[in-house]
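Structure first, sequence second, as always.
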C-alpha cells in the first residue's frame, strides 16, 4: 500500500486532533478519580456482636452493635449506615440519642452525628463518628429505637465507610433481632 501525500496529511491531521482531545481531558473533573484518591479498608472491619436490651413489643430499647476494626485495616472508621431490611413495620430510630464508645480497657465516649434517611423506601440511620475510629479498636454503637408492635425477626444491614475524600463502603453483614409478639411469646 502506497501512502500518498494527501493520505499522509489526512492521517497526520487526525492524529493531532486525537492527541489533543486525549490531552485536553480535565483530570480535576468529578467523574475522573485517581486510584490514590480512593479511600478503602485494607482489612475488613467485622460486625462482632449485636443485641438489644429489650425484646418486648412497642417499648423503647437500645440496639447495640459492636464493630472490630483490625490493626491492618490502615484507614480509620468514619461512618456507619444501619439499614432496616423490609419487614411488617418500620422501626423508629431516635438519632439524637445515639451513642458511640471505643471499648478497650475502658469505654471512651465518641461524639456522633446521627440522622434518619427515609428516601427511596429505605429506613436508614446514618452515623458520622467525630473523630474517626483508628484501626486496632472496637467500636460500640448504642442506638435507641422503639421495638415493633408486631414481633418477629427484624434484620438490619450494617455498612462501614473509611475516612477520606472518596470512601468506598464495605458491607459488614446483617444484625438480626428477634422481638416478642404482643401478649407474650408464641
Amino acid at each position: 500500500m502506497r501512502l500518498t501525500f494527501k493520505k499522509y496529511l489526512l492521517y497526520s491531521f487526525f492524529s493531532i486532533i486525537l492527541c489533543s482531545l486525549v490531552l485536553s481531558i480535565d483530570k480535576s473533573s468529578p467523574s475522573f478519580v485517581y486510584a490514590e484518591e480512593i479511600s478503602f479498608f485494607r482489612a475488613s472491619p467485622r460486625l462482632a456482636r449485636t443485641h438489644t436490651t429489650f425484646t418486648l413489643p412497642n417499648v423503647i430499647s437500645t440496639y447495640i452493635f459492636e464493630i472490630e476494626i483490625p490493626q491492618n485495616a490502615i484507614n480509620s472508621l468514619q461512618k456507619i449506615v444501619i439499614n432496616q431490611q423490609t419487614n411488617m413495620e418500620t422501626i423508629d430510630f431516635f438519632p439524637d440519642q445515639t451513642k458511640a464508645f471505643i471499648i478497650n480497657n475502658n469505654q471512651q465516649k465518641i461524639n456522633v452525628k446521627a440522622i434518619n434517611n427515609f428516601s427511596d423506601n429505605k429506613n436508614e440511620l446514618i452515623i458520622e463518628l467525630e473523630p474517626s475510629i483508628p484501626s486496632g479498636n472496637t467500636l460500640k454503637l448504642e442506638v435507641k429505637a422503639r421495638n415493633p408492635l408486631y414481633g418477629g425477626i427484624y434484620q438490619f444491614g450494617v455498612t462501614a465507610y473509611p475516612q477520606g475524600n472518596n470512601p468506598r463502603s464495605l458491607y459488614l453483614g446483617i444484625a438480626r433481632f428477634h422481638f416478642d409478639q404482643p401478649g407474650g411469646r408464641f
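Margin note: DSSP finds one helix and twelve strands in the chain.
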